[in-house]
Amino acid sequence: MAETLIVSSSADKAERYQALLPQIQSLTAGEKDLIANLANTAAALKQTFGFFWVGFYLVKENELVLGPFQGPIACTRIKQGKGVCGMAWQKAQTLIVPDVNEFPGHIACSSESKSEIVVPAFKNGRVFLVLDIDSDKLNDFDHTDAVWLQQLMKMLEPLL
User: Taking the domain 13-159, which CATH number applies?
Assistant: First the structure.
């Protein structure tokens, strides 16, 4: 298992994702514990991109329940359809929110969060968990993030 990530800070966003994903795959290869894999994935994303908050919410008993994360304390439970995470779960699709203050029903776990992307992962055709990433900058996420983070989640799905 690698102890350090090798990603050039001068690389553009796509190049950083391209360098990071194989390293996450290496980190999770052979490890059967889901929490350990999600924890390392969250840490790798935060370390590489410096996002404000990176974490996972797992579907448990008809709620999203906080899983491994990196960043300030967070909301523990989210109902389906509530906030960006609950809406991404309900719609079973990636959501990019350029300005969280303009998202109807946004759940403000931190007033420092300005933009957000949420990407679901599926098990047996149903959303099993979501990756939630917040930025303290407006409009920090785009199509590039969506494409690479969806690829990351597909890579993690066999581990679920």
Answer: 3.30.450.40
